[in-house]
Design a protein that fits this description.
Elements (H helix, E strand, L loop, with lengths): L6 E6 L5 H14 L4 E5 L6 H10 L7 H24 L3 E5 L2 H10 L4 H5 L10 E6 L2 H6 L11 H14 L4 E5 L4 H20 L9
Parallel strand pairs: 1-3, 1-4, 2-3, 4-5
Helix pairs in contact: 1-8, 2-3, 3-4, 4-7
The protein binds 3'-deoxy-3'-aminothymidine monophosphate (NYM) and magnesium ion.
Length: 207
């Protein structure tokens, strides 16, 4: 029987280096002969993803609850494919997941518990890496972009919300280090967790 792949989630505020580090991690895992694929949420290519993209680019307006549910739907529609891939032995590196969903929407003022509900039942990650960077440091990286939410005041609130969501299983990575050192820290963390999980890998769990 094939051993299932790992579901590795990478979270953090905007400009914390998530996408860069996800690419590097996928490459490193592949080089070790581990069948790995990158997944990114929101997936802007699907129908829900196109609505989300237009909202983020400030080309359309949506009620805060409605956009929250769209982000969640964007994850739900991927679950069947992702669980099949994992069960077929593929490891997935996921750039943002439901934690971003709850952190951003609750930072805007929606009730935290209300925000959690639509994502209940999604696949549970095996590992959550949190790329930790102060908002001051994030801003020094050439400033935020032009998308909705990429504003200092909101990012500070988002970070506070992430801190409410974290649990003991999260691995904090100091993202203020050089790209190479962040890469090393992530690799060491993954390697240690992988060894730990290898002998004791559970069936896929749903939260
Ligand atoms: N975002 C992302 C949410 O507000 N809710 C979600 O569920 C997810 C997955 O979308 N500023 C926000 C966080 C980002 C923005 O993400 C787009 P990215 O990784 O910059 O493409
Ligand atoms: Mg962004």
């Amino acid at each position: 029987m094939t051993q299932r792949g790992l579901l590795i989630v990478v979270e953090g505020c905007d400009r914390s280096g998530k996408s860069t580090q996800c690419d590097i991690l996928v490459n490193s895992l592949q080089q070790k002969g581990i069948d790995t694929e990158l997944v990114k949420f929101p997936d802007r290519t699907t129908q829900t993803g196109k609505m989300i993209d237009s909202y983020l680019q400030q080309k359309s307006e949506l009620d805060d609850h409605a956009i929250h549910l769209l982000f969640s739907a964007n994850r739900w529609e991927a679950m069947k494919t992702l669980s099949e891939k994992l069960n077929n032995g593929k490891t997935l590196v996921v750039d943002r997941y439901a934690f971003s969903g709850v952190a951003f929407s609750s930072a805007k003022g929606l009730d935290l518990e209300w925000c959690r509900n639509p994502d209940i039942g999604l696949l549970t990650p095996d590992i959550v890496l949190f790329l930790d960077l102060s908002i001051d440091d994030a801003e020094k990286r050439g400033g935020f972009g032009d998308e909705r939410y990429e504003k200092r005041e909101l990012q500070i609130k988002v970070r506070d919300q992430f801190m409410k969501l974290k649990d003991d299983s999260w691995k904090f990575i100091d993202a203020s280090q050089s790209k190479e050192n962040v890469e090393k820290e992530i690799w060491n963390t993954i390697d240690a967790t992988r060894n730990l999980l290898q002998d004791n890998i559970q069936e896929l769990q749903f939260n």
